Amino acid sequence: MTAGYGRARRRHARGAVSYIPADSFLHRLDPRTKLLILIVISIAALVTTSPVRTAFLFAFVVGLAVAAGLGRPFSRSLLFLLPLFIFIIVIDGLFPEEAWGPVYFSAQVGPFSPEVSLGGLLFAAAMGIRVLVIGGVSFIFVMTTSYTDFVASLRASRLPPVIAFSLGYALKSMTALTEDLGNIMDAQRSRVLEFDRGTLVKNRRKLMALGVPMTVSVLNRARYVTEAMQSRGFASTPRPTCYRPPRPGRDDILLLVVLVVAVLGIAMVPV
Question: What is the pLDDT of residues 76-87, one digit of tens each?
């Protein structure tokens, strides 16, 4: 087991969403294929308001995670979406865009008129599952795509080097900043600073103990990256070459066919 893999496992043990080195079929796919899968599934989730169809989409995303051997880290990553999931269920359940069928609760609270109906509950379920679908497929993309492969695929797509580097660095920063936040929280807990007790209002002063070190960390990281880019002659040539540009293979085509068939099949599911 490599040191990098050990660090990745420790980050996930603390709940971070980051790249997990492995040799699954998803890891071996061209990053552009995985990006296309992310876009297609996200669009499919956004255009449907059926809880049945969104549930099938979520099942497809879970199947991808399990097939890639990411069942446990994927399930842990979904906990990040739990507060947003509950918020959407409550808001869309009380104030739905689609309200039909029997009404279970109705009231007048000042200018608001919350109402709970069968159609509203189904609409809220669809909106909640939509968050899990989009967030879940995004987490899978991060867990199975390394920074180097992602940037190489963007360069092979003839994107301008600045755009390719910016998108790749955004993917890398998600992992780095999450790790920095975990380290800062561990350091503050070792100083007997508790973040788990009290409400957000009561902990507003404690949040400064995270905000200030994180700001310093972001500024230092930006300075280090700038110096590293300058020392490597970034943007000194209009079109830098790539030593091993990724190329789509048979597995990429096969998974795209499976994706198209699955999306078309889900679209034909009766509501």
Answer: 999 889 999 999
Total domains in the chain come to: 2
> Per the structure block, which two tokens stand in for 39?
């876009």
User: Do 114 and 107 form a contact (C-beta atoms < 8 A)?
Assistant: yes
52 and 121 within one domain: yes
pLDDT at 58: 96
Closest CA to 252 of 117, 149, 166: 149
Give the pLDDT confidence score for residue 137 in this predicted structure: 95
Distance (Å, rounded) from C-alpha 121 to C-alpha 115? 10
Tell whether the model's pLDDT for residue 196 goes beyond 70.
Answer: no
The residue behind tokens 């990053």 is: 31
Is 251 exposed, middle or buried (CB count within 10 Å of its CB: 0-12, 13-18, 19+)? Answer: middle
Report if residue 3 sits inside a domain: no
pTM for the full model? 0.71
Between CA 236 and CA 80 the distance in angstroms is 40
